[in-house]
Amino acid sequence: MTAYYNEIDPAAVAMLEQLIADGVIAPGVVDNRSIKDVQPNDLSGFTQCHFFAGGGLWSVAARMAGWPDHRPIWTGSCPCQPFSAAGKGLGKDDPRHLWPDFHRLIRASRPAVVMGEQVAGARGYDWFDGVRSDLAKESYASRGIDIPACSVDAPHQRNRLYWIATAPGVLPDTEHTVGRAHDDIRGGRHSTEEERQGQGATQPGELHQASHGGHNGSWWADAEWIDCHDGKGRRTKPGLPLLVDGVPGRVDLWRVGGNAIVPILAAEVIGAFMEVSP
Questions:
Q1: Residue 21: which pLDDT band, with cuts at 50, 70 and 90?
Q2: What is the pTM of this model?
């Protein structure tokens, strides 16, 4: 077993266990305790650690980018509710502000590479300022980028702040390396098909063709417009029923999906880092 997944949502835990069994994500174990109860010794022997694991999409993204299951990485999309505009705005006073516990484990275990995601905009930037300060005290170099899912042609906007941190001595010229990955993402990566295939990765465009039929090369090309109660028009997949009947556990699935990262976008972040790191 190579991976450790930490998640408290029972629906997400069941999903993770099934995805491991189906070979969709890196093999490993699921720990359903709160991160507050996790101790550094609990993580000994694991190559990858995914906190706030949700539906395991950081592992999916890593595989898409060509990051091997045996290559060390930690990921953590800390709960966004304390900093989301949709929440009460309690910020660091919210009991769901769990970065201090994630930081506690990073400080003790000193993983080589840590990646994460948070809400975009001013609230996310303020959160990341604190994260960078904490990581800098441990001599980690870190960078973040505010980027929307539609930048990789995913069928929604979903702006998020993605970040990468590397431990000292792991990479040569660490700050420069992380900075180049940041610039690579901002400027757009244009890996050759041979490079992608060499990593065993799937290109986002290939995902579009496989899932969308390749219509005009875009998720958005054949969208249908619907009129919403707030007076705005929104695009939706052609023929998609607006109400779902008979899907077991659909509320749980919606919750897990609503909290999830966009793996195509996360794969671009990981891939950009891989291009500038050994």
A1: very high
A2: 0.76
